[in-house]
Protein backbone atom coordinates (compact mmCIF):
# COMPACT_ATOMS: atom_id res chain seq x y z
CA UNK A 1 0.00 0.00 0.00
CA UNK A 2 1.32 3.43 -1.00
CA UNK A 3 0.16 6.20 1.33
CA UNK A 4 1.80 9.62 1.41
CA UNK A 5 1.34 12.56 3.72
CA UNK A 6 1.21 15.89 1.87
CA UNK A 7 2.42 18.81 3.97
CA UNK A 8 1.98 22.51 3.30
CA UNK A 9 5.55 22.98 2.04
CA UNK A 10 4.80 20.68 -0.94
CA UNK A 11 1.81 22.65 -2.21
CA UNK A 12 3.85 25.24 -4.19
CA UNK A 13 5.26 22.55 -6.51
CA UNK A 14 1.87 20.83 -6.76
CA UNK A 15 0.08 24.06 -7.67
CA UNK A 16 2.74 25.00 -10.24
CA UNK A 17 2.67 21.62 -11.97
CA UNK A 18 -1.13 21.49 -11.92
CA UNK A 19 -1.40 24.92 -13.50
CA UNK A 20 0.98 23.85 -16.27
CA UNK A 21 -1.09 20.75 -17.11
CA UNK A 22 -4.28 22.79 -16.65
CA UNK A 23 -3.88 24.22 -20.17
CA UNK A 24 -4.59 27.76 -18.97
CA UNK A 25 -7.72 26.92 -16.97
CA UNK A 26 -8.80 25.52 -13.64
CA UNK A 27 -8.53 28.82 -11.78
CA UNK A 28 -5.73 30.80 -10.19
CA UNK A 29 -2.99 28.44 -8.88
CA UNK A 30 -1.65 30.99 -6.39
CA UNK A 31 -5.03 31.45 -4.71
CA UNK A 32 -5.57 27.70 -4.58
CA UNK A 33 -2.12 27.12 -3.15
CA UNK A 34 -2.67 29.64 -0.34
CA UNK A 35 -6.03 28.08 0.56
CA UNK A 36 -4.51 24.59 0.65
CA UNK A 37 -1.46 25.65 2.67
CA UNK A 38 -3.68 27.38 5.22
CA UNK A 39 -5.98 24.37 5.56
CA UNK A 40 -3.09 21.90 5.94
CA UNK A 41 -1.33 24.03 8.55
CA UNK A 42 -4.58 24.29 10.51
CA UNK A 43 -5.78 20.69 10.25
CA UNK A 44 -2.68 18.62 9.44
CA UNK A 45 -1.27 16.81 6.38
CA UNK A 46 -3.43 15.33 3.63
CA UNK A 47 -3.32 11.57 3.08
CA UNK A 48 -2.76 10.74 -0.60
CA UNK A 49 -3.60 7.21 -1.75
CA UNK A 50 -3.17 5.34 -5.03
CA UNK A 51 -6.16 4.07 -7.00
CA UNK A 52 -5.07 0.48 -6.30
CA UNK A 53 -5.35 1.08 -2.56
CA UNK A 54 -8.94 2.36 -2.64
CA UNK A 55 -11.42 -0.35 -1.52
CA UNK A 56 -13.84 -1.51 -4.21
CA UNK A 57 -16.86 -0.35 -2.17
CA UNK A 58 -15.40 3.08 -1.31
CA UNK A 59 -17.53 6.16 -2.02
CA UNK A 60 -15.29 8.58 -3.94
CA UNK A 61 -16.36 12.17 -4.63
CA UNK A 62 -14.50 14.81 -6.69
CA UNK A 63 -14.56 18.37 -5.31
CA UNK A 64 -14.09 21.38 -7.60
CA UNK A 65 -14.97 24.96 -8.40
CA UNK A 66 -17.10 25.73 -11.44
CA UNK A 67 -17.27 28.97 -13.38
CA UNK A 68 -15.17 31.59 -15.10
CA UNK A 69 -11.51 31.73 -13.93
CA UNK A 70 -11.59 35.51 -14.32
CA UNK A 71 -14.21 35.62 -11.55
CA UNK A 72 -12.49 33.08 -9.28
CA UNK A 73 -9.52 35.45 -8.91
CA UNK A 74 -11.69 37.95 -7.02
CA UNK A 75 -14.34 35.63 -5.55
CA UNK A 76 -12.38 33.14 -3.46
CA UNK A 77 -14.20 30.50 -1.42
CA UNK A 78 -14.48 30.83 2.36
CA UNK A 79 -14.19 27.09 2.96
CA UNK A 80 -17.71 26.66 4.31
CA UNK A 81 -18.96 26.00 0.77
CA UNK A 82 -17.08 22.68 0.76
CA UNK A 83 -18.69 21.48 3.98
CA UNK A 84 -22.15 22.52 2.83
CA UNK A 85 -21.73 20.71 -0.49
CA UNK A 86 -20.42 17.50 1.09
CA UNK A 87 -23.16 17.44 3.76
CA UNK A 88 -25.85 17.96 1.14
CA UNK A 89 -24.44 15.18 -1.06
CA UNK A 90 -24.05 12.80 1.90
CA UNK A 91 -27.68 13.33 2.84
CA UNK A 92 -28.79 12.76 -0.77
CA UNK A 93 -26.76 9.54 -1.00
CA UNK A 94 -27.78 8.27 2.41
CA UNK A 95 -24.23 7.08 3.05
CA UNK A 96 -20.87 8.40 4.17
CA UNK A 97 -18.26 9.68 1.71
CA UNK A 98 -14.97 7.80 2.20
CA UNK A 99 -12.54 9.42 -0.28
CA UNK A 100 -12.13 12.68 -2.20
CA UNK A 101 -10.73 13.21 -5.70
CA UNK A 102 -9.82 15.89 -8.26
CA UNK A 103 -12.14 16.41 -11.19
CA UNK A 104 -9.37 17.96 -13.29
CA UNK A 105 -5.73 18.94 -13.27
CA UNK A 106 -5.77 22.71 -13.18
CA UNK A 107 -4.81 25.65 -10.99
CA UNK A 108 -7.35 25.96 -8.18
CA UNK A 109 -9.17 22.73 -9.03
CA UNK A 110 -6.12 20.66 -8.16
CA UNK A 111 -5.71 22.39 -4.80
CA UNK A 112 -9.34 22.75 -3.61
CA UNK A 113 -9.50 18.95 -3.04
CA UNK A 114 -6.48 19.32 -0.71
CA UNK A 115 -8.44 21.96 1.21
CA UNK A 116 -11.41 19.62 1.45
CA UNK A 117 -9.25 16.65 2.47
CA UNK A 118 -7.44 18.63 5.16
CA UNK A 119 -10.67 20.01 6.61
CA UNK A 120 -12.59 16.71 6.57
CA UNK A 121 -9.74 14.27 7.27
CA UNK A 122 -10.76 12.17 4.27
CA UNK A 123 -8.03 10.64 2.08
CA UNK A 124 -7.42 12.11 -1.39
CA UNK A 125 -7.00 9.81 -4.40
CA UNK A 126 -3.83 10.34 -6.46
CA UNK A 127 -5.70 10.79 -9.75
CA UNK A 128 -8.04 13.09 -11.66
CA UNK A 129 -10.88 12.75 -14.14
CA UNK A 130 -9.30 14.41 -17.20
CA UNK A 131 -5.48 14.42 -17.16
CA UNK A 132 -5.78 18.15 -17.94
CA UNK A 133 -8.59 20.74 -17.64
CA UNK A 134 -11.68 21.08 -19.84
CA UNK A 135 -14.34 23.79 -19.65
CA UNK A 136 -17.57 21.76 -19.34
CA UNK A 137 -18.85 19.34 -16.68
CA UNK A 138 -19.58 16.43 -19.00
CA UNK A 139 -16.01 16.52 -20.36
CA UNK A 140 -14.66 13.94 -17.94
CA UNK A 141 -13.54 10.34 -18.29
CA UNK A 142 -16.36 9.23 -15.95
CA UNK A 143 -18.75 10.19 -18.78
CA UNK A 144 -16.94 7.78 -21.10
CA UNK A 145 -17.05 5.15 -18.33
CA UNK A 146 -20.82 5.53 -17.88
CA UNK A 147 -20.66 7.37 -14.55
CA UNK A 148 -23.34 10.00 -13.98
CA UNK A 149 -22.38 13.53 -12.97
CA UNK A 150 -25.45 13.54 -10.71
CA UNK A 151 -26.35 13.81 -7.96
CA UNK A 152 -24.51 17.11 -8.28
CA UNK A 153 -24.39 19.76 -5.57
CA UNK A 154 -23.48 23.42 -6.12
CA UNK A 155 -22.94 25.90 -3.28
CA UNK A 156 -21.89 29.53 -3.00
CA UNK A 157 -20.39 31.87 -0.42
CA UNK A 158 -23.83 33.18 0.54
CA UNK A 159 -24.97 29.80 1.86
CA UNK A 160 -27.10 28.77 -1.13
CA UNK A 161 -26.99 25.15 -2.25
CA UNK A 162 -28.58 23.32 -5.17
CA UNK A 163 -28.94 19.57 -5.69
CA UNK A 164 -29.32 18.49 -9.32
CA UNK A 165 -30.49 15.17 -10.74
CA UNK A 166 -30.49 15.23 -14.53
CA UNK A 167 -31.18 12.84 -17.38
CA UNK A 168 -27.56 12.88 -18.61
CA UNK A 169 -24.23 14.61 -18.05
CA UNK A 170 -24.78 17.21 -20.78
CA UNK A 171 -27.95 18.38 -19.04
CA UNK A 172 -25.99 18.51 -15.80
CA UNK A 173 -23.61 20.95 -17.48
CA UNK A 174 -26.41 23.10 -18.86
CA UNK A 175 -28.34 23.40 -15.62
CA UNK A 176 -25.29 23.68 -13.37
CA UNK A 177 -23.86 26.41 -15.61
CA UNK A 178 -27.08 28.42 -15.29
CA UNK A 179 -27.05 28.04 -11.51
CA UNK A 180 -23.36 29.02 -11.39
CA UNK A 181 -24.05 32.18 -13.39
CA UNK A 182 -26.76 33.14 -10.90
CA UNK A 183 -24.34 32.43 -8.05
CA UNK A 184 -21.99 35.06 -9.49
CA UNK A 185 -20.22 32.98 -12.18
CA UNK A 186 -18.43 30.87 -9.56
CA UNK A 187 -19.62 27.95 -7.41
CA UNK A 188 -18.29 25.01 -5.41
CA UNK A 189 -19.33 21.59 -6.69
CA UNK A 190 -19.28 17.92 -5.70
CA UNK A 191 -20.18 15.48 -8.46
CA UNK A 192 -19.48 12.20 -10.28
CA UNK A 193 -19.88 9.93 -7.25
CA UNK A 194 -17.89 6.75 -7.90
CA UNK A 195 -17.21 3.44 -6.23
CA UNK A 196 -13.61 2.41 -5.76
CA UNK A 197 -14.08 -0.35 -8.32
CA UNK A 198 -14.84 2.25 -11.01
CA UNK A 199 -11.75 4.40 -10.54
CA UNK A 200 -9.41 2.60 -12.92
CA UNK A 201 -11.80 3.20 -15.85
CA UNK A 202 -12.94 6.67 -14.78
CA UNK A 203 -9.75 8.42 -13.61
CA UNK A 204 -6.19 9.11 -14.78
CA UNK A 205 -3.94 7.52 -12.16
CA UNK A 206 -0.98 9.26 -10.54
CA UNK A 207 -1.68 12.79 -11.76
CA UNK A 208 -1.16 14.49 -8.39
CA UNK A 209 2.25 12.85 -8.08
CA UNK A 210 2.96 13.88 -11.67
CA UNK A 211 2.11 17.55 -11.10
CA UNK A 212 4.34 17.68 -8.02
CA UNK A 213 7.21 16.17 -10.00
CA UNK A 214 6.58 18.63 -12.85
CA UNK A 215 6.39 21.65 -10.56
CA UNK A 216 9.55 20.62 -8.74
CA UNK A 217 11.47 20.02 -12.00
CA UNK A 218 10.63 23.53 -13.26
CA UNK A 219 11.66 25.12 -9.95
CA UNK A 220 14.93 23.19 -9.71
CA UNK A 221 15.84 23.96 -13.33
CA UNK A 222 15.97 27.72 -12.73
CA UNK A 223 19.50 29.04 -12.79
CA UNK A 224 20.87 25.69 -13.96
CA UNK A 225 19.05 24.91 -17.21
CA UNK A 226 16.03 25.99 -19.24
CA UNK A 227 12.89 25.41 -17.10
CA UNK A 228 10.66 25.20 -20.19
CA UNK A 229 12.79 22.34 -21.50
CA UNK A 230 12.51 20.63 -18.12
CA UNK A 231 8.71 20.82 -18.37
CA UNK A 232 8.71 19.52 -21.96
CA UNK A 233 10.76 16.47 -20.97
CA UNK A 234 8.36 15.42 -18.20
CA UNK A 235 5.26 16.08 -20.33
CA UNK A 236 6.67 14.34 -23.43
CA UNK A 237 5.77 17.61 -25.11
CA UNK A 238 6.75 19.83 -28.01
CA UNK A 239 7.81 23.48 -28.04
CA UNK A 240 5.23 25.09 -30.31
CA UNK A 241 6.26 28.73 -30.08
CA UNK A 242 8.28 31.32 -28.20
CA UNK A 243 7.27 34.96 -28.38
CA UNK A 244 5.77 38.08 -26.88
CA UNK A 245 2.04 38.60 -26.30
CA UNK A 246 0.87 41.41 -28.58
CA UNK A 247 -2.89 41.25 -28.04
CA UNK A 248 -5.42 39.57 -25.74
CA UNK A 249 -9.17 39.70 -26.32
CA UNK A 250 -11.08 38.26 -23.36
CA UNK A 251 -14.71 38.28 -22.20
CA UNK A 252 -16.80 36.47 -19.61
CA UNK A 253 -19.80 34.93 -21.34
CA UNK A 254 -22.20 32.20 -20.23
CA UNK A 255 -20.06 31.36 -17.22
CA UNK A 256 -16.87 30.98 -19.28
CA UNK A 257 -13.83 33.11 -19.96
CA UNK A 258 -13.60 33.17 -23.76
CA UNK A 259 -11.15 34.86 -26.07
CA UNK A 260 -8.01 34.87 -28.19
CA UNK A 261 -4.39 35.81 -27.67
CA UNK A 262 -1.81 36.69 -30.30
CA UNK A 263 1.95 36.37 -30.03
CA UNK A 264 4.81 37.72 -32.12
CA UNK A 265 7.68 35.29 -32.41
CA UNK A 266 11.11 35.74 -30.86
CA UNK A 267 14.32 33.74 -31.19
CA UNK A 268 13.85 30.81 -33.56
CA UNK A 269 10.25 31.96 -34.14
CA UNK A 270 11.17 35.53 -35.08
CA UNK A 271 8.96 36.86 -37.88
CA UNK A 272 6.20 34.36 -37.20
CA UNK A 273 2.92 34.72 -35.30
CA UNK A 274 0.82 32.47 -33.12
CA UNK A 275 -2.87 32.70 -32.21
CA UNK A 276 -4.40 30.96 -29.20
CA UNK A 277 -8.14 30.45 -28.81
CA UNK A 278 -9.54 29.60 -25.39
CA UNK A 279 -12.73 28.83 -23.46
CA UNK A 280 -11.38 28.83 -19.90
CA UNK A 281 -8.70 26.48 -21.29
CA UNK A 282 -6.63 26.81 -24.47
CA UNK A 283 -8.40 24.95 -27.26
CA UNK A 284 -6.43 25.75 -30.41
CA UNK A 285 -2.95 26.98 -31.34
CA UNK A 286 -2.13 28.15 -34.86
CA UNK A 287 1.23 29.35 -36.16
CA UNK A 288 0.88 31.53 -39.25
CA UNK A 289 -2.60 30.07 -39.72
CA UNK A 290 -1.51 26.43 -39.46
CA UNK A 291 -2.84 24.30 -36.60
CA UNK A 292 0.04 23.09 -34.41
CA UNK A 293 -2.07 21.77 -31.49
CA UNK A 294 -5.72 21.45 -30.56
CA UNK A 295 -8.12 19.77 -28.17
CA UNK A 296 -8.01 17.27 -26.65
CA UNK A 297 -4.20 17.58 -26.59
CA UNK A 298 -2.71 19.99 -24.08
CA UNK A 299 -1.71 23.57 -24.95
CA UNK A 300 0.27 25.09 -22.07
CA UNK A 301 1.67 28.61 -21.76
CA UNK A 302 4.74 29.22 -19.58
CA UNK A 303 6.83 32.28 -18.81
CA UNK A 304 9.91 31.79 -20.93
CA UNK A 305 12.49 32.70 -18.29
CA UNK A 306 10.97 31.13 -15.17
CA UNK A 307 8.77 28.34 -16.52
CA UNK A 308 5.88 29.58 -14.37
CA UNK A 309 2.47 28.72 -15.87
CA UNK A 310 0.36 31.57 -17.24
CA UNK A 311 -3.40 31.04 -17.02
CA UNK A 312 -5.85 32.46 -19.56
CA UNK A 313 -7.08 35.09 -17.10
CA UNK A 314 -3.50 36.20 -16.31
CA UNK A 315 -2.27 36.48 -19.91
CA UNK A 316 -1.33 40.11 -20.67
CA UNK A 317 0.22 42.27 -23.39
CA UNK A 318 4.00 42.17 -23.28
CA UNK A 319 4.37 38.80 -21.54
CA UNK A 320 7.24 36.77 -22.96
CA UNK A 321 6.06 33.19 -23.05
CA UNK A 322 6.71 29.75 -24.45
CA UNK A 323 3.82 27.59 -25.69
CA UNK A 324 4.01 23.82 -25.25
CA UNK A 325 1.89 21.11 -26.84
CA UNK A 326 1.60 17.69 -25.18
CA UNK A 327 -0.40 14.49 -25.77
CA UNK A 328 -3.61 13.88 -23.84
CA UNK A 329 -4.74 10.67 -22.15
CA UNK A 330 -5.26 8.05 -24.89
CA UNK A 331 -8.94 7.65 -24.01
CA UNK A 332 -9.62 11.17 -25.30
CA UNK A 333 -8.32 10.09 -28.72
CA UNK A 334 -10.99 7.43 -29.17
CA UNK A 335 -14.07 8.13 -31.28
CA UNK A 336 -16.20 8.57 -28.14
CA UNK A 337 -13.60 10.84 -26.56
CA UNK A 338 -13.37 13.05 -29.64
CA UNK A 339 -17.15 13.31 -29.83
CA UNK A 340 -17.02 14.73 -26.31
CA UNK A 341 -13.96 17.02 -26.46
CA UNK A 342 -12.64 17.06 -30.02
CA UNK A 343 -12.21 20.16 -32.18
CA UNK A 344 -15.58 19.80 -33.93
CA UNK A 345 -17.44 19.86 -30.61
CA UNK A 346 -16.03 23.35 -30.05
CA UNK A 347 -17.02 24.50 -33.53
CA UNK A 348 -13.72 24.11 -35.37
CA UNK A 349 -14.02 22.87 -38.93
CA UNK A 350 -11.22 20.34 -38.89
CA UNK A 351 -10.56 16.84 -37.63
CA UNK A 352 -8.27 16.05 -34.73
CA UNK A 353 -4.61 15.34 -35.51
CA UNK A 354 -2.30 14.29 -32.65
CA UNK A 355 0.16 16.96 -31.54
CA UNK A 356 3.14 14.68 -32.18
CA UNK A 357 2.10 14.29 -35.83
CA UNK A 358 1.49 18.01 -36.28
CA UNK A 359 4.97 18.74 -34.96
CA UNK A 360 6.93 15.82 -36.38
CA UNK A 361 10.24 16.80 -37.99
CA UNK A 362 9.98 17.32 -41.74
CA UNK A 363 11.55 14.48 -43.75
CA UNK A 364 14.78 15.42 -45.42
Structure characterization notes:
The longest helix has 15 residues, at 29-43. The chain folds into two domains: 3-205, CV3147-like domain (CV3147-like fold, 3-Layer(aba) Sandwich); 226-358, Beta Barrel (CV3147-like). 53% of the residues are buried. Strand 13 (273-279) and strand 14 form a beta hairpin. The protein is globular. By secondary structure, the protein is of the alpha+beta class. Strands 1, 2, 3, 4, 5, 6, 7, 8, 9 and 10 form a ten-stranded mixed β-sheet that branches. It has a seven-stranded antiparallel β-sheet with strand order 15-14-13-12-11-17-16. The chain has twelve helices and 17 strands. Helix 1 (11-21) packs across helix 9 and helix 9 (207-221) runs antiparallel to helix 10. This is DUF917 domain-containing protein. Residues 11-165 form the S-Me-THD N-terminal domain. It comes from Actinomadura miaoliensis.
What's the quick description here?
The chain is of the alpha+beta class and about 375 residues long. It contains twelve helices and 17 strands. The protein has two domains: about 5-205, 3-Layer(aba) Sandwich (CV3147-like fold), CATH 3.40.1610.10; about 225-360, CV3147-like (Beta Barrel), CATH 2.40.390.
